[in-house]
């Protein structure tokens, strides 16, 4: 039976077939992925009104792909005070945000209590705002820093008001590639273990994959299949987010960058392979708005959100530092032929625009 016939019958593809998906015609892949998208989500394109906060760029790790952490490439270290963070949330709440997304570096000086206290303060002052915070990489860092188990860190997060976990820190799971791009931080298996524990606590998370650097196609397929396996067990992932590598101000020295076609193929393949993860997010911050909108016809059904402010990807060249106005976001989705659906962080539908 051919790959196309297997997909037509909605048979699950394993590695040997999955890697061959990249050999298919771009528009054949688009047609397949778009059909699956329509089965799951019709013409809906989801987004949320959210605010990204990156509290500190001081980091004990030196990842080759990163342009955000304070280093020779970014000689401007900063750490926000709780008062500064709360002021941001206060101002953003006036814009109707439903989520605050808190991710930062592995700062050995701020401390676990510093994080837990700000989560608690946000929840006390803004109880209706969903707190998405601490990647698995940050959980691992804090676990090692304070000699606590992952379970203990996760329980403290929940007690302090964290509602869901972002998908960052996954990068690429292949161990050899991972050693080159982010050796020293959370391992592939540790990342998966942390999300498994988070899901078993009754909470949901996202999953990411950083691609377009020194990995190969087979590494992307391996990454997706590892996520699919965990999802079979826990059903805790809301969305898969293929993050396009940003090329400026880092140490990987990548010379050949992905074409738009390769990015779109990867989006489509993720929709085909990840049959058990409901949403595929084309994160406009890393892919550009235009390509993210096009990706909605290649299996993606989510664009993330307005974000208001973003520091990590923009440090590496992404045009996302100041987010995107809500009206422009909605108009772009409509003009692309999709129905804009505002959602909350767990994909409950709030408003059809």
Automatic annotation (TrEMBL):
Its EC number is 2.5.1.120. Pfam families: CofH_C, Radical_SAM. Transmembrane segments: none annotated. The keyword S-adenosyl-L-methionine applies. GO terms for biological process: menaquinone biosynthetic process. Pathway: Quinol/quinone metabolism; menaquinone biosynthesis. Coiled coil: none annotated. Keywords: 4Fe-4S, Iron, Iron-sulfur, Menaquinone biosynthesis, Metal-binding, S-adenosyl-L-methionine, Transferase. GO terms for molecular function: 4 iron, 4 sulfur cluster binding; 7,8-didemethyl-8-hydroxy-5-deazariboflavin synthase activity; aminodeoxyfutalosine synthase activity; iron ion binding. Binds 1 [4Fe-4S] cluster. The cluster is coordinated with 3 cysteines and an exchangeable S-adenosyl-L-methionine. [4Fe-4S] cluster binds at residues 59, 63, 66. Its cofactor is [4Fe-4S] cluster. S-adenosyl-L-methionine binds at residues 65, 171. Residues 45-278 form the Radical SAM core domain. SMART domains: Elp3. It catalyses: 3-[(1-carboxyvinyl)-oxy]benzoate + S-adenosyl-L-methionine + H2O = 6-amino-6-deoxyfutalosine + hydrogencarbonate + L-methionine + H(+). Belongs to the radical SAM superfamily. MqnE family. Radical SAM enzyme that catalyzes the addition of the adenosyl radical to the double bond of 3-[(1-carboxyvinyl)oxy]benzoate, leading to aminodeoxyfutalosine (AFL), a key intermediate in the formation of menaquinone (MK, vitamin K2) from chorismate. This is Aminodeoxyfutalosine synthase. It comes from Halarcobacter mediterraneus. The gene is mqnE.
């Amino acid at each position: 039976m051919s790959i196309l016939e297997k997909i037509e019958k909605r048979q699950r593809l394993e590695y040997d077939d999955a890697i061959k998906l990249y050999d298919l015609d771009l528009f054949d892949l688009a047609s397949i992925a778009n059909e699956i998208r329509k089965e799951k989500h019709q013409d809906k394109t989801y987004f949320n009104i959210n605010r990204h906060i990156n509290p500190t760029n001081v980091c004990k790790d030196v990842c080759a792909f990163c342009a955000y952490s304070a280093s020779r490439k970014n000689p401007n270290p900063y750490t926000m005070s709780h008062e500064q963070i709360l002021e941001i949330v206060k101002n953003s709440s006036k814009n109707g945000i439903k989520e605050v997304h808190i991710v930062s570096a592995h700062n050995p000086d701020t401390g676990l209590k510093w994080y837990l206290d700000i989560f608690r303060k946000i929840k006390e002052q803004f109880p209706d705002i969903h707190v998405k915070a601490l990647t698995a990489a940050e959980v691992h860092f804090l676990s090692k820093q304070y000699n606590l188990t992952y379970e203990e860190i996760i329980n403290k997060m929940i007690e302090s008001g964290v509602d869901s976990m972002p998908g960052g820190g996954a990068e690429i799971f292949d161990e050899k590639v991972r050693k080159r791009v982010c050796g020293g931080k959370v391992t592939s298996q540790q990342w998966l273990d942390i999300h498994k524990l988070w899901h078993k606590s009754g909470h949901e998370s996202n999953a990411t994959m950083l691609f377009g650097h020194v990995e190969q196609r087979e590494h992307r397929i391996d990454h997706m299949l590892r996520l699919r396996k965990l999802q079979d067990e826990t059903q805790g992932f809301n969305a898969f987010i293929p993050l396009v590598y940003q090329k400026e101000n880092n140490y990987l020295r990548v010379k050949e960058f992905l074409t738009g076609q390769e990015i779109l193929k990867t989006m489509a393949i993720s929709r085909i392979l990840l049959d058990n993860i409901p949403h595929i997010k084309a994160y406009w911050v890393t892919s550009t708005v235009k390509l993210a909108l096009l990706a909605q016809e290649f299996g993606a059904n989510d664009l993330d959100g307005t974000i208001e402010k973003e520091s990590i990807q923009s440090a590496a060249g992404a045009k996302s530092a100041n987010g995107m106005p809500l009206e422009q976001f909605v108009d772009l989705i409509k003009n692309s032929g999709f129905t804009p659906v505002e959602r909350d962080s767990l994909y409950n539908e709030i408003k059809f625009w």
